[in-house]
Amino acid sequence: MLEDIKQDKIRKLENFKSAGIDPFPSVAFEKEKTIEVIKKALGEKAQVAGRIMLLRDMGNITFLHLQDQFGRIQIVLNKKEFDGDYKLWVKNLDLGDFIGVIGKRFDTQKGEKSVLAQQITLLSKSILPLPDKHKALTDEDEKLRKRYLDILFNDQVREMIYKKDRFWNAVRKFFKDRDFVEVETPVLEIKAGGADAKPFVTHHNALDLDVYLRISTGELWQKRLMVAGLEKTFEIGRQFRNEGMDSEHLQDYTQMEFYWAYADYQKGMELAKELFRFVAQETFGTLKFKIRNFEVDLGEEWKVYDYVETVREKTGIDVSKANLKEIETKLKELKIEYDTKGFNLSRAIDNLWKYCRKSIGGPGFLINEPLVVSPLAKRKKDNPNFVERFHVIIAGSELANGYSELNDPIDQFGRFEEQQKLREAGDEEAQMNDGDFVEALEYGMPPTFGFGMSERVFAFLMNKSMRECQIFPLMKPKK
């Protein structure tokens, strides 16, 4: 059936060719937006282009609905008014074809704002039929696999794309208005640093060298810029983590990180709160959201959650004193699944915390995190076993992360050494020992605050999975 339809459309394509009309011309068609043409006075010249989404042949008059990025407009093709072979066009145009129309503003007898066509230019002939507009695509995997059709028929998906554009532009505006410099740092790295994550590995042919796709958006590079004398930087870019997939995590996604010299995590919390409120208002026009089973108001006072107290309250375990065996016993008791490969105290504490956070709606900040789970953050002066770090907690998840950066090269070298031991013991997410970064710190880096958030923030505010909020998510090929 599909092949018969395709062959019929190819036959029509050949009919256009026989009439001297190129079905795929190289032409720049000067078009007006459909929404602007609708506002024009009756009789005024109009020039529109788009995809045919409806076609009704009534004999000597044919009605088309033409859709562009901005909306739809009706095209009236009247045999008496049309400057061309009316029969050729009516018999060989199809739903899905792209055409350009020159005509004049016209209202039908029913008052529908339209364009009375005088000339038509075929811009692209479709070969496959569009899905039925009422059924469209129903299978969720097929929707993501053929995302272009889902966007074409689904106004909500198309609006999501526009909102995501507003989201990142709002982030950029927020920082540019505060004198931050936008930078670009390497995506390919000899050592993947700045996060606890398993990297993708590839090979650089020209240098005959294995390299990693970055797992952070230039954390160790932006801190080098602090060494270099810059004081406020940010980057919005793609990063990659070769880990599991779920509603909150993907392997490649957009991340924003900023670094601010002469600031600490206390100042960073205030700026982060301002950022979330500004971006939410600019993107969605509100600070109130329904996310999962939580009602979240970013405009209310943000709560502060103590890491150790929160875990103790919800599990009875004091992670500042408990050993690996005690935490592992509690994980099994709570039926929390975890990866046993390279399992250590840091991973055990992190898994226990992730269980606890699920019941916290926020908005708020998680503070006083143990040093063992924060190899790049500065120690707290009053308790060196904890660090000056926070996470933004919203709807049971960590949506952003910031800390006073460690600028003591001796301390940093020691922590890298400890991380290297964890890697050698099988922890593929432990930090790599980056001697070049330590050397940069030895030249001196001012007190610095660093912060990162990804497109997961956008997905949460949309109350959708990350995969749904990517325009073209990675899909396994069909067998």
Explain the layout of strands and helices.
Blueprint: H1 2-18, H2 34-37, E1 45-57, E2 61-68, E3 71-78, H3 86-92, E4 98-107, E5 113-124, H4 140-145, H5 147-153, H6 155-176, E6 181-182, E7 188-189, E8 201-204, E9 209-213, H7 219-227, E10 232-240, E11 252-261, H8 265-284, E12 288-291, E13 294-297, E14 303-306, H9 307-315, H10 324-333, H11 345-357, E15 364-370, E16 386-394, E17 397-404, H12 409-424, H13 435-442, E18 448-454, H14 456-462, H15 466-469
Parallel strand pairs: 3-5, 6-10, 14-15
Antiparallel strand pairs: 1-2, 1-4, 2-3, 4-5, 7-9, 8-9, 10-11, 11-18, 12-13, 15-16, 16-17, 17-18
Helix pairs in contact: 1-3, 5-6, 6-8, 10-11, 12-13
Structural notes for this entry:
With about 475 residues, the protein is of the alpha+beta class. It folds into two domains: about 1-125, OB fold (Dihydrolipoamide Acetyltransferase, E2P); about 150-300 and about 360-470, Bira Bifunctional Protein, Domain 2 (BirA Bifunctional Protein, domain 2). It has helices at about 1-20, 35, 85-90, 140-145, 145-155, 155-175, 220-225, 265-285, 305-315, 325-335, 345-355, 410-425, 435-440, 455-460, 465-470, and strands at about 45-55, 60-70, 70-80, 100-105, 115-125, 180, 190, 200-205, 210-215, 230-240, 250-260, 290, 295, 305, 365-370, 385-395, 395-405, 450-455. The protein has an eight-stranded mixed sheet, with helices on both faces. Helix 1 (about 1-20) packs antiparallel against helix 3, helix 6 packs antiparallel against helix 8 and helix 10 (about 325-335) runs parallel beside helix 11. The relative contact order is 0.10.
